[in-house]
Specification:
6 strands; 54% helix; 207 residues; six-stranded mixed sheet; alpha+beta; elongated
Length: 207
């Protein structure tokens, strides 16, 4: 490649001289196509272009060094990608935890125990859509699992399963008894996440 570039600079000088000679032959010896000083500057510039490629070894060394830098950058990017893959599950868990904390903060059950309340229109008659509407009709929204858990912490005890905002069906028991979790610890009882056409009661949250 270096020899090719040097040859190009030589060819440029030859073509330049030939062009001047041809023009002067057509226009006459007195034609002022390019002054001697300007001609010399142009040729000197071409010579400088050739000097840039004189030391082939220096250029090859620089190329090798830059190739090494590129390899290191590629390794670094690969390591960062692996770390990101390991970090993503942790970030997702933190995000879920923050959402649950926000839900609990919104449920100020210690000051307003009735903010989470149970709604029944007969015995298990509400599908998921009707359950949400039943809360809206009472100037409330369907409660989240975190809000129901917070209400349970402050004593909410209802032996009836109800819809929650995530599509699950649960109910809070603080005092287990016959028909309501006898011989089991207090807590939330879950019936899983049934089809939204199934009918239960609902737990609402009043803002």
């Amino acid at each position: 490649m270096m020899n090719t570039l040097k040859n190009c600079t030589m060819i440029m000088k030859i073509l330049f001289v030939l062009c001047l000679t041809t023009i002067q032959a057509q226009e006459g010896p007195s034609s002022d196509v390019l002054t001697g000083e300007a001609k010399n500057k142009f040729i000197a510039a071409i010579d400088k272009l050739g000097v840039l490629f004189d030391d082939e070894r220096d250029l090859q060394g620089e190329v090798t060094r830059l190739a090494g830098v590129v390899d290191k950058l590629e390794d670094l990017i690969g390591n960062l990608a692996q770390q990101q893959d390991q970090l993503n599950p942790v970030l997702n868990q933190l995000e879920e935890l923050e959402e649950k904390v926000d839900d609990i903060k919104k449920c100020t059950c210690s000051r307003y125990p009735d903010r989470v309340f149970h709604v029944a229109e007969g015995r298990y008659t509400l599908n998921f859509q009707k359950a949400k509407q039943a809360c809206i009709d009472r100037d409330a929204v369907i409660a989240t699992p975190a809000q129901l858990k917070a209400a349970h912490t402050f004593g909410l005890d209802v032996c009836a399963a109800g819809w929650l905002s995530d599509g699950s069906v649960q109910y809070p028991i603080t005092m287990p008894r016959n028909g309501c979790g006898v011989n089991t610890p207090s807590g939330l009882r879950s019936w899983g996440t049934p089809d939204h056409s199934k009918t239960y009661n609902v737990y609402c949250f009043r803002n």
